[in-house]
Amino acid sequence: MMPRSALLRPALVLALVLAVSGCSSIKSMFKDENKNEGVPVGQLYDRAHELMVKEKWSSANETFGRLVAQYPYGPFTEQAMMEQAYAEYKSGKNEDAVSTIDRFIRTYPTHRNIAYLYYLRGLANMARNTVFMARAFNLDTSNRDLDAPLQAYADFNTVATRYPNSRYAGDARQRMVYLRNSFARYELNIGMYYLRRGAYVSAVDRATYLLETYPQSEYQNDAVALLGAAYTRLGNTTLAADARRVLQQNDPQHPWLSDSEWPHEPSTLKRLNPFNSDSR
């Protein structure tokens, strides 16, 4: 019969091997985490920029972050902050991108690329809180919270008005048009909700607000139809007739003109989907 010490020896050897390999793994983990520690600023920037070129956004973001932390001042730092913000935006970290841009604007308010930073902040704000759901389910984002889109609109407006000759001004204006139509549709969705539930005065208020706040939006004819439908159900034939006359001039094919039941109740499936704009 083998002595107990002989039986325990293989187990002890295995335990020792595991401990050594574990320490090695831990050391390599920390070594990997600190691989950018103490690297010269130019070399660190080149490393991060190469990751950007390869579209490795998360790794580029981490490397630029290390550069900014180790070298908080200088031309490399300015460029690194801009590229870090872009890497954060591309990797879907929109709130981080906004924070980085805010810090940059506070630190370098007269930087030659400040128009780009406002434009990039507009892109990040435009994508905040909606990008995942929109991509995953192809949902209508016009009925989501408007805080971030409103900030995006303000950012693009800054680019278009303060820096009208910048290369970003034209696209900023187009995005403002898109956002403006989204805001108008948001108001229309709420107005339809009130109409379907018999809150006709509230529907009138929403339609009026849409027409006054977002004139010439692509939903203005729907807003006029909403006014007409609400006035009809309120029994105000004079104002309903005015809405009908305006709609006949501007959109003679609008369904309300030939269908007194417009808008129809959404399908059961749509009403059961809380993310659908017609589920109101």
Which features would summarize this protein structure in a list?
Serine Threonine Protein Phosphatase 5, Tetratricopeptide repeat, mainly alpha, 280 residues
Structure description:
The protein is an all-alpha fold and 280 residues long. Among the domains are: 38-111, Serine Threonine Protein Phosphatase 5, Tetratricopeptide repeat, CATH 1.25.40.10; 183-279, Serine Threonine Protein Phosphatase 5, Tetratricopeptide repeat, CATH 1.25.40.10. 71% of the residues lie in helices and 0% in strands. It has helices at 4-33, 41-53, 57-70, 75-90, 94-107, 114-127, 131-137, 147-162, 169-196, 200-213, 220-234, 237-250, 268-272. It starts with a helix and ends in an 8-residue tail after the last helix. Residues 10-14, 24-32, 131-139 and 271-275 have low confidence and may be disordered.
Q: CATH top level of the domain at 183-279?
A: Mainly Alpha
Shape: elongated
Annotation field: number of helices: 13
H-E string = HHHHHHHHHHHHH
* Multimer state: single chain
Full CATH superfamily name of the domain at 183-279: Tetratricopeptide repeat domain
Q: Please tell me the overall pLDDT.
A: 83
Could you name the CATH topology of the domain at 183-279? Serine Threonine Protein Phosphatase 5, Tetratricopeptide repeat
What is the straight-line distance between the termini? Answer: 81 Å
Structural class: mainly alpha
